[in-house]
Amino acid sequence: MPVQHSQHPPQDPDAVARPLYALRITPQATRWERPWHNHRKAQLLFPLAGVITCETDEGLWMAPPQCAVWIPGDMRHSVQGLEGTEGYCLFVEPEQVLGLPAACCTLAVSPLLQALLQRCVEIPVLYDLDGPQGRLMAVALDELAAAPQEQIHLPMPRHPRLRGMAAALIEQPAERRSLGGWGERIGMSERSLSRLIVAETGLSFGQWQRQLHILLGLKQLARGESVESVALGLGYESASAFIRMFKKAVGQPPARFLTERRMLLGAQEPGEQG
């Protein structure tokens, strides 16, 4: 993960002897990935621009503008960022995370928490625990603990054949193969496949595919692509069809969803309609 700190700290966050440790995620010209790994400290990933996604054995989480991904300590995960993504990364010692989620999730980031993160990355790595900088970190932790969860994630199946099907749909989201067609492709009956998807993800095949489209659509919209372009790329007949699906699932159209977060950030809105 492309990060920087003025004090040039050690690469291993677990080696930093402080309850909280903040880094700035620097923008890159290309997409980047931090392969599967784990660390003792819990982690918060908050993009100021672009989109960050995190995959665990249980699912896929993403952080559109004004949201962050929370990763509990010792959880195996991988992280990906779109080109131009920048933001903040906060590592938290396990004993400091009481009241915070025990599972990976997406959190809404308040303007106060964003301002605190901006300040946290500017202080020395080995800050004075009993001084103003230590108190600042404590306030950041309190605000983090109050952050509400957002249901922006994609449960991933563990079954090998379902995992392969999910990977194919993520790679080619416009694929409109029926459930029976997928059953033929992976060697399962349609009924068995349907039951297994629900058992593994808690969602029907149609619900899972729609959630995938929401995730991928948000990633592309955050890059400034139009709703029409995103809708067609995901296999919808029109922008309005994608907007209807998104509004039914999320409660508001995609442009409004992103605009509310961009307004809080003071960022420029993309030019999509809907």
From TrEMBL:
Pfam families: AraC_binding, HTH_18. The keyword Lyase does not apply. Residues 163-260 form the HTH araC/xylS-type domain. The keyword NADP does not apply. GO terms for molecular function: DNA-binding transcription factor activity; sequence-specific DNA binding. Keywords: DNA-binding, Repressor, Transcription, Transcription regulation. This is AraC family transcriptional regulator. The lineage of its organism: Bacteria, Pseudomonadati, Pseudomonadota, Gammaproteobacteria, Pseudomonadales.
